[in-house]
Amino acid sequence: MWYTITLTVGLILLVISLFLLRDSLAFLKDSERAVATVIQLDRVSGSDGDTYKPVFTFKTVSGQEITYRHGVSSSPPSWSVGEETVIAYKAGDPSVARLVTYFGTFGWSIVLMAIAMPAIVVGGGYYLAQGVLK
Q1: Which of 1, 21, 28 is nearest to 116 (CA)?
Q2: Average of per-residue pLDDT across 31-37
């Protein structure tokens, strides 16, 4: 019976990861691109010590300057002040932006697929083996 649960969880995670992948690809397709520069590193204090969250600035196609605060902090800092990267933003609402990095764009989709695929193989394998072994 546990293999049915494993297979079901794997299939659900696969479907969720495919929806996330579709949303990421749609965002990239419909977004504008700009070069963003790190202007500062915000210190975030926590129980494990201080981590640093980069703050970017970029100009839209219309010339509007936007400040983007990245949602991920790290120690040591992943970014240096003055470092540049490509950012994708929604044309109608530039405050909705994402860094164009592989993991930043597809991270959750990859993580969920990495969990889903072994669950599908193990659960599906046991499910199919039950019919053969009876």
Answers
A1: 21
A2: 96
Q: How far apart, in whole angstroms, are the C-alpha atoms of residue 129 and residue 48? A: 47
What confidence tens digit (pLDDT) does each residue in 59-83 have?
Answer: 999 999 999 999 888 999 999 999 9
Q: Are 116 and 11 in contact (CB under 8 A)?
A: yes
* Cα 35 from Cα 42, distance rounded (Å): 20
Residues with Cβ within 8 Å of 70's Cβ and at least 6 positions away in sequence, in order, are: 53, 54, 55, 56, 79, 99
Instruction: Domain count for the chain, please give it.
Output: 1
CA distance 56 to 44: 16
**Calpha distance 1→8 (Å, rounded):** 11
For 103, residues 6+ apart whose C-beta sits below 8 A from its C-beta are: 110
Domain that holds residue 104: 2-133
Displacement of CA 14 from its chain's centroid (Å): 15
Share of the chain above pLDDT 70, in %: 100
Cα separation, 104 vs 72, whole angstroms: 10
